[in-house]
Hints:
The protein is an alpha/beta fold. The protein has helices at residues 11-22, 67-83, 97-122, 130-141, 146-159, 162-165, 168-182, 208-222, 241-252, 262-271, 290-303, 317-326, 347-355, 378-382; strands at 2-8, 26-36, 45-54, 184-185, 196-201, 229-233, 256-258, 277-281, 306-312, 334-338, 359-364, 373-375. The chain folds into three domains: 2-122, no CATH class; 130-182; 188-376, Rossmann fold, CATH 3.40.50.300.
Amino acid sequence: xxYFVEQAPTDQEVQTKIRxxxxxxxxxxxxxxxxxxxxxxxxxxxxxxxxxxCSHAPLKPVQRGTIGxxxxxxxxxxxxxxxxxxxxxxxxxxxTSNDLESVLTEIRALRETIHSDTSRRSGTGSGEPEALxxxxxxxxxxxxxxxxxxxxVERLRRECTLDELSDFDTIGARxxxxxxxxxxxxxxxxxSRIPHVVVLVGPTGVGKTTTIAKLAAMYGAVADPSYDVRxxxxxxxxxxxxQQIQKYGExxxxxxxxxxxxxxxxxxxxxxxxxxxxxxxxxxKSPSDYGKLAEVNQMVRAAGGEVHLALSATTKRSDIQEIIxxxxxxxxxxxxxxxxxxxxxxxxxxxxxxxxxxxxxxLTDGQSVPQDIERARRESFLRRLNDIPGSRAFSxxxxxxxxxxxxx
Length: 408
């Protein structure tokens, strides 16, 4: 006897391959599903591997009865094999037990093929279309949360045909569009009142002071005509913090004042009540430092105005969710996402903001003042997605100034 092992994408193809290579002498011993191909463990495909042998004994002529008789014999042997493995396969009308075993193997293979195809069409089991599995892996590589990824995959199953689910470019473009729909952009309005007070809160190290300087420069130094801008800071504890913001103010010719109490905050706001914008920098503290957070919150409440939470795009997804929760007492209206240039994956921040139903007001992507800041746009997130076909449609060029909300 000569043993063989053959592989093919489906049962039908591997059976055809065996018949073509070995003819009627082929006998099946075992069949199993395997995973082949792929790169670094990704995008592997399901295949079927069949082990068998070729008998060199002379082929016996096979006597066949009527269709009804053959059907009855096959069903009897199927019931016998499934009901008791100890029952030997009898010979009937010249058909050997090996012949019947081959027929039974083909019947089981056909049944498994039908089950696999049903699972694939319903979106269950491991028979998922390869393109859908590939897209799921890409979403995970972009650091989207499991819940967000599951939401997108389930929507694809509901709204796409089987042919569409087999086309990676088609479902990729569809998902890119849906990701954009989940990004909420804050409806920022210049001069919503006089003065327009903007307070920036957030944990240590996210770049609040630099972001305040960028916002002040955007409206006080770059805008044409420029606005009357003031900067207030309560960050007088961190070494060098006051000197840093004062240096920015000196360069931009924007007045900077330090504030150390709620009473002094109200006094400064009264002194500058004719300004167009007053940007307020706050102390950066850990979200778990409840005592300091309460002190900052008192100052913020004294300032009134519009509160924005600064979040770094480099922060872990689980930490982002915790920061969002801890700063809820500040009643912030929107989120400023900083350090966009320091991360290769924006799926984490997109997932966290969507799951917490938070809007984005501004994005920063560098240390330069005032260049590296822009009004939040969905496209700014989408063009940073990796390996999702629809994201290629978004240009890397910066949004024109007249669209950024700086102009009157």
